[in-house]
Amino acid sequence: MIIDCDVHNDWSSADVLLPYMDPNFRDYFQRGEKPGPQGALPHAHRPWLHPEDFRRHDIKPESDDDHYKLMRQHLLDKYDITIAILTGEEALECSTLANPHYASAIARAFNDWLIHEWLPRDPRFKGSLLVAPQDPQGAAAEIRRLGDHKDIVQVLMSHGSYRPYGDPFYHPIWEAAAEVGLPIAIHLGGQGGINYQPIGGGPTTFYWTTHALLCQPAMSHVASTIAHGVFEKWPKMKFIIIECGIAWLPAILWRLDANYKALRKETPWLKRLPSEYARDHIRLTTQPLEQPARKEDLWHVLEAIDGRHVLMYASDYPHWDFDDPTQIRLPREWQEDIFYKNALQTYDRLPKLAE
Amino acid sequence: MGNSDGRKAMTRAASASRKPGRRRKQYACGPANLQPGERRLIEVDGKQVGIFNVNGEYYALHNRCPHMGGNLCAGPVSGTTLPAGPYQFVYARDNEILRCAWHGWEFEIATGICLVDPSIRARTYAVEVENGNLYLYI
After folding, report:
1. Does the pLDDT value for residue B9 go beyond 60?
2. What are the start-end ranges of the E strands in B1-138?
């Protein structure tokens, strides 16, 4: 059994959103400026462009129906995926726009498109409810509008952000997600526009170094959500970090624990060590799995944070750093947990699949 | 995976053994009419094989990347930048390099050698042109 926690349902043109676009913003979307030709999604693009495109070269959809057909052929049927959690594609980038009203309109159109055109297609599909984090009130309203949909399993935002996500600015989003009983996930993306600092130290030069360093915002979100007391305020909340790497987590938690022991007075609302909050509330997806020369080194490091129970498998289909479930070689005794058991524990709404 | 290894792969001649050996000769893929830079994907004995015309010479590679099993032969064929000094870009070897369709690792089509780590090789097959048709030793 495999639950794939990061499957991209793409479109051939963002114009598919037009029928779902808020009438107040339809003319923006039709006639307004875009970062590409007609069919491009309005967003602020990142300054790093993948020199070979970020999609796999053996998957070439020619029509909108092809996206689903090829996904079946190259992922769902090929690996017998039990559940695929859809994470959209470019729509995540609405987080880069300065206009929060327009950003939320794009997120709403995406969610309606997802619910009408993707989720009913295949019983294996579960969806992510996209929100524009620069519009916390609009995001909260969207979570209350659609968060009860039976096939929606998480709220989704880009990991590129205006501020770290524990900041009180975002608390309306956490509040709404807690209210409808959904975890909040962040996915690699949104590294441009108003999210101007995705890399500490300033903008890197090359795509491959940048991509490796894009774990940095995830580190900030881990520290921020824990320190601001998100998991004290919403004790059932789960925070899922998608596509940001995993091997950095132990080091960050060790550093946070050490500092907290000395300086807990800054955050007297916390009751436990940062690593203890992380163990109970933060989950990471595996892709792109780090590949040390000695594979066992990775598992030894992750043992220190109970990696067996905090990691969830993701393929990132159909991207250039796709992880084939038959190739990633998890430790034998961790496999069931990472391939599906941890996801069943994390996503309350997944049907409790009998073994 | 250091720079010196990469350099070695870049300069290694396409002289790695491609002799038919004891493999069977198979009719593979019809006419030898691929243009330089073109390829054809065929299936022989359940194996997917990519046949490439590299500047007039034919080569064949198993359509399975030794890195993670991806569709090697569906990736782009092009040249690449040769090892060079800081901030120097020397683009060469056009049509000689195949980039895996999944993760983008580069391979020399003639030998199957992976540019970034020459200890990794994609499987190659010998190809012969006879009476205008392509034959594969497999």
Report:
1. no
2. 25-31, 39-44, 47-54, 57-62, 77-81, 91-99, 106-108, 124-130, 133-137
